[in-house]
Design a protein that fits this description.
CATH architecture of the largest domain: Alpha-Beta Complex
Number of strands: 10
Largest sheet: 5 strands, antiparallel
Strand order of the largest sheet: 1-2-3-5-4
Number of domains: 2
CATH superfamily of the largest domain: Aminoglycoside phosphotransferase (APH), C-terminal lobe
CATH class of the largest domain: Alpha Beta
Order of helices and strands: HHEEEHEEEHHHHHEEEEHHHH
Strand content: 15-25%
Oligomer: single chain
Helix content: 40-55%
Number of helices: 12
Distance between the termini: 19 Å
Length: about 350
């Protein structure tokens, strides 16, 4: 199944607040202080993301400006300027040039060099691009495993291990239990109650899932946190295919299965064993890691999927203030998505 992006519901919360930041001219000044630079034009790529055309010292440069809230601003700065450089992997992450912050502290623009590449495609079998993405992912996972920065990953990005599962299930159960949907009719109340019962069942599974994660989840490391193939960008390179990982808004600490579940889940089931094998070989080559078997991996991936859906539900209830018609529809969607969670690795 295609799980919804984890950032979606949080964006629904933040979009209710008008965000204003510095103008793009300020972004250009921050990016090229002391140099001759001027803004030539810009285009909106998606909500809060713009491409800027800039003349610098007589030549033209393309930048990407992305508006984020203060916590995400700090987290992404740490990824680009502290955590990845600490292990020599700054070229695996986003090319951050500068930050232009709002005077009121509401947020800031991240200013990046435009990589000029494209996202890794999911429409074809394992090839050089996917292998390059796997090498980048495995490089980050192994280089920062059990690193002294792991407490920082957790502080600034949160925990994506069993705590992420347990906390989100607990919050989702409590949030559903507080919803008064009587005015929406008996069908809405029944849907809420059925979803509440399903989440309670998942909550009771936490000890078993914790046991598997402890035994087979591997070391804690820096996770991208939202590792869709769209966030793996193929960039021009004279030496061959190279991939950089962008959009680290959801970065945090946890076992590698959280990232792998997200990445593998976007490919056709027939392609996943080959991609996983490439990751097995990469982490073995880089750090001597051995991944667990298919059964354990599937349970780890499933745990990550359920945790993300519970998180989505919590943020959806917050966005709706517990009273919108849209929320009733979302409850039905979450119930369907829970039912559609299936093994990432199909039985042979």
């Amino acid at each position: 199944m295609d799980l919804p992006e984890s950032k979606g519901a949080r964006a629904e919360v933040s979009s209710t607040v008008e965000q204003r930041g510095p103008g793009f001219e300020t972004c250009v000044r921050e990016s090229f202080a002391g140099r001759s630079a001027r803004l030539m034009g810009h285009e909106q790529l998606k909500t809060n993301v713009h491409r800027l055309r800039v003349e610098v010292d007589g030549g033209e440069r393309s930048l990407v400006a992305k508006w984020s809230d203060p916590v995400v601003v700090r987290r992404c700065w740490l990824v680009a300027r502290r955590w990845l450089p600490a292990v020599g992997l700054e070229d695996h992450g986003p090319p951050l040039l500068a930050i232009a912050a709002a005077a009121n502290g509401a947020g800031a623009w991240h200013i990046y060099d435009d990589l000029g590449g494209r996202s890794v495609s999911t429409d074809r079998p394992l090839d050089g691009e996917v292998e390059a993405a796997i090498d980048a992912i495995a490089g980050v996972h192994t280089a920062l495993a059990e690193h002294r920065f792991v407490p920082e990953f957790r502080l600034w990005g949160g925990d994506r291990g069993i705590q992420f599962y347990s906390a989100n299930l607990r919050d989702a159960v409590a949030a559903l239990g507080s919803l008064d949907l009587d005015r929406h009719g008996a069908e809405a109340v029944a849907a809420r109650d059925a979803l509440h019962e399903r989440l309670c069942e998942l909550q009771h599974e936490a000890p078993e899932r914790a046991q598997v994660l402890a035994a087979s989840g591997g070391p804690e490391t820096l996770l991208h946190g939202d590792l869709w193939p769209t966030n793996a960008v193929v960039v021009p390179d004279a030496q061959g295919v190279r991939v950089r990982l962008i959009d680290w808004d959801e970065a945090g600490a946890g076992p590698t299965g959280f990232d792998l579940a997200t990445f593998l889940g976007r490919f056709d089931s027939s392609q996943r064993p080959g991609i996983l094998e490439a990751y097995r070989q990469a982490v073995d080559r880089l750090a001597g890691w051995s991944l667990p078997g298919e059964r354990e991996l599937n349970l780890i991936f499933e745990t990550a999927a359920y945790a993300r859906l519970a998180s989505l539900l919590v943020w959806s209830i917050a966005a709706s203030h517990g009273a919108s018609d849209w929320l009733v529809e979302r409850l039905g969607e979450v119930a369907e998505w829970l039912d559609e969670v299936s093994p990432v690795l199909a039985p042979a």
